[in-house]
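pipeline stage [seq->struct] | target=Beta-phosphoglucomutase | organism=Streptomyces mashuensis | residues=258
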Amino acid sequence: MHPRPPGKPTDVTTLGLPGTIAACLFDMDGVLTETATVHAAAWKETFDAFLRRRDGPGFRPFDAVEDYDRYVDGMPRADGVRSFLASRGIGLPEGGPDDPPGHDTVQGLANAKNTLVLKKIEELGVHAYPGSVRYVRQVRAAGLRTAVVSSSANARAVLDAAGIGDLFDVRIDGLVAAERHLPGKPHPDTFLTAAQELGTPPERAAVFEDALAGMEAGRSGGFGHVVGVDRTGQAEELRRHGADVVVTDLDQLLGDPS
């Protein structure tokens, strides 16, 4: 991260933001980097393996679109496990943080998912959305401060692999949240912490999210503007969960005063 003193913003309406906004808080997976599909695939492989062990060949598989969006997207890993299992009426022991993949505990499934994600990222690499990079660069050129707010414990490695780590003044990720005992999305605490570290009150910060849990965090945190990024055709759901505006790519906001 690259802290800097706040600059004097230019006309931020050219960024599609209200004139009061002085800082931008970006989710990572699905907003900045093309990793949401990797996470969805890893969740599906993890949950399907568990459900197959539990229910046999006739198990009801994890839906990598609907179940992912509704129950796990944007949440810390263990919270995602609990959320999805609750949707199926399944209870598991919590287990411990060192439970290996294959242990049918909350922590075991969370660790299995993380192992798969890291493997897929190593195999496939990490790519940033060009429109998002273009937008973040314009945000910084306008003098606004920037932060990444992600539930991922791998955020630093992902940002560096995508070559965009230097575009953000602050990073609040899964590791920081664990160290500071911050509840994850849909709670607003990680976004509020990022705004605080940027020296910006929530009402002068904009949140950029693709997850329904992130929309709820933006709404409940009292942020000045919440942008929903629709990569999967869930624009109406994003609006219902708190988005002030929905785009399919961030550079659609450039030059848009609405």
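stage status: PASS
auto-comment: The longest helix spans residues 36-55. The radius of gyration is 18 Å.
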